[in-house]
Design a protein that fits this description.
Blueprint (H helix, E strand, L loop, with lengths): L5 E11 L4 E2 L15 E7 L3 E6 L10 E3 L4 E6 L4 E5 L5 E10 L1
Length: 101
């Protein structure tokens, strides 16, 4: 993301396994105060696949891969959730609402 600075909001810890799990709704937080798409920072402690949608159900074939320890900044439309799944094993996906400073 270059040299962009972000203000971090609340973080959701989403337990994930080889069965899809869905997050809370993201984008409607104190840190994201305008309507439209919002940015979240995600980081997992296990390799996983993530899907964004109103009622998402991630799979290893429809989700985008997130490597353990890596973090990504992604846009999430208002009222949308993230779903995550592992190919094997269990871990956590950390989802943090952010806004540019």
């Amino acid at each position: 993301m270059g040299n962009t600075s972000y203000r971090l909001g609340a973080t959701e810890k989403l337990p994930i396994t080889n069965a899809a799990a869905a997050s809370q709704v993201h984008g409607d937080s104190e840190v994201n105060t305008t309507n439209g798409d919002h940015v979240v920072r995600i980081q997992a402690d296990v390799d996983c696949f993530v899907l964004v949608g109103k009622t998402p159900v991630a799979s290893v074939s429809n989700g985008f891969p997130v490597a353990a320890g890596a973090y990504e900044y992604i846009d999430v439309p208002d009222g949308h959730k993230l779903s995550a799944i592992t190919a094997s094993g269990a871990g956590n996906l950390y989802i943090t609402d952010v806004s540019k400073i």
